[in-house]
Amino acid sequence: MAVDYTESFIMQLEAGSHQRVAQAGICFVNAFRKFFHHRSWMVLPMTAVLSLIAGLAIRDGFLTSLDGTMTGAFVLVGVCIWNGTYSSIQAICRERAIIREKKRLKLHSSSYTAGNMLLQFLICVAETGIVLVMLRAAGIRYTGRPLFTQWFVVDFGITIFLIIYASDMVALFISALCRTKTAAMTILPFVLVLQLVFSGSIISIPDSIDPIAMITVSRPGFKAMSAQADLNHLPIALVGDIMTDLEDTPIEISITLGQVLDLLSDADNPAVAKARNVKIGTITTVGDLNDQLLYDERLQGLRDTKIFGGLTVGILLSEINDAQILDDFKDKKIGMEITVGEAVDLLANNAQLAGFRNEGIDVETTVGEVLELLGREETQALIEEKAAMKYYDPALDQTRENVLSNWTRLLVLLLVFAVGTAVVIKSVGAWPKRRARA
Q: Is residue 99 assigned to a domain?
């Protein structure tokens, strides 16, 4: 049978010292006992499961691509906020009866808040370690550049801890406001949705309501993670994936002769330069050509062609060969060898073709062939550069100042909500008395 420590807590307050530090210790011990009595420790295995699932979902692109890191940071911030809020959402409201007797027990609201904050601090440290271990187990490599310590995982862990602890303090404040556990759990989903919507990651926030995001944990948490990952300078994996998926897509394009010649004249394009060096045409000898005309099976139809009467091309060639007319010329070379580039330049500078440069040509090809012609790597780099400019935010550059400013915001938020919790606890029991006097 589980032991209820409420009566023990009251007795300790009545018999113990009324100094704030001593009372904070008593409140911490009581909170620690309640952590196990109410099975609040279940939040730790839940943290492990959620972190592992999140890690498996985001491991392919997190910290390696811009789009993967944006999605991953959004997911991780959500997981951290959930872990933090769930740890303390019922911590105070379930002891409201004791808090209402704080004057009789001479309980300082600051001591009660400090005792709970200390326990939540230890829980958040444990959750931070669990999150980091589970993400690594899921396959995420902490390969970023450290800014404050010698290890990126430590810097990243500080961000995760501050998000969890700040969220914990928000939930502690809500718990102090609510009269019942049911009310606290009812408010919790609205707080989580508000945090995720105003994170500024997946969903763009209009300027008119952007100030609301300043009081959320998710916004500085997302910015700190993104700056640590150097989001502004990561490649966009989605561009390459789309180009790969479209490679075999057939397309029909209309192009003029002039455009073709101009494209093939662009020696700065690596794909075109490679094509321009290809040699076309062949050089052979009179003897080889004579043998080909006489014995090549593919030319049998030509040899059977009648010239007149019973004379065929084959008979004529045989007679010439037997007469040894071509013996003195068998080693003479005939034909021409030229590169594609030289042929293109000849055509481009041909005055007779100038009038045909605007003639249209319909070509059936694939996206992949067009990319190879234009230069796949250069085209992809250009698209990625233009897309990255859309997402560029100076506040997400990998600098100590950017990360430190967001850490500071998280610290200020958790302290503000901690002070707010103490103020709310101090006011509990005062309102009914005021209504009674009225």
A: yes
Helical ranges in 215-256 per DSSP H: 218-228, 237-245
Rounded Cα gap, residues 200 and 266, in angstroms:
43
The structure tokens listed for 45 are 């295995």
Instruction: Give CA–CA dist 133/128, Å, rounded.
Output: 9
Residues 81 and 209 in one domain: yes
Instruction: Please count the other Cβ atoms lying within 10 Å of the Cβ belonging to residue 64.
Output: 17
Asked if 218 and 315 sit in the same domain, the reply is no
Burial classification of residue 310, based on how many CB atoms lie within 10 Å of its CB (0-12 exposed, 13-18 middle, 19 or more buried):
exposed
Q: Answer yes or no: is 1 within a domain.
A: no
Distance (Å, whole) CA 162 – CA 123: 12
Q: Which domain holds residue 107?
A: 6-230+397-437
Q: Please report, as a single letter, which amino acid is at residue 27.
A: C
Distance of CA 284 to the CA centre of its chain: 59
| Residue 42 in domain | yes
Residues 342 and 390 in one domain: yes
Residue 118 CA to residue 98 CA, distance in Å, equals: 19
225: CB partners within 8 A, 6+ apart: 73, 76, 77, 156, 159
**Token digits of residue 160:** 């995760």
pLDDT in tens, the chain (438 residues): 344 566 677 777 767 667 888 888 888 888 888 888 777 788 899 999 999 999 999 998 898 888 889 899 999 999 999 999 998 998 888 888 788 877 777 888 888 899 999 999 999 999 999 999 999 999 999 988 999 999 999 999 999 999 999 999 999 999 999 988 889 999 999 988 888 888 877 777 767 777 777 788 999 999 999 999 998 888 777 666 666 666 777 777 676 767 766 777 777 766 667 767 767 667 777 778 778 778 888 778 767 876 555 567 777 678 767 767 667 767 777 666 667 677 767 767 767 666 666 766 666 777 666 666 666 666 666 666 666 667 778 888 999 999 999 999 999 999 999 999 999 988 876 544 444 343
CB atoms within 10 A of CB 294: 14
Report the predicted TM-score, pTM, of the whole model to 2 decimal places. 0.69
Q: What does the block give as tokens for 24?
A: 């904070």
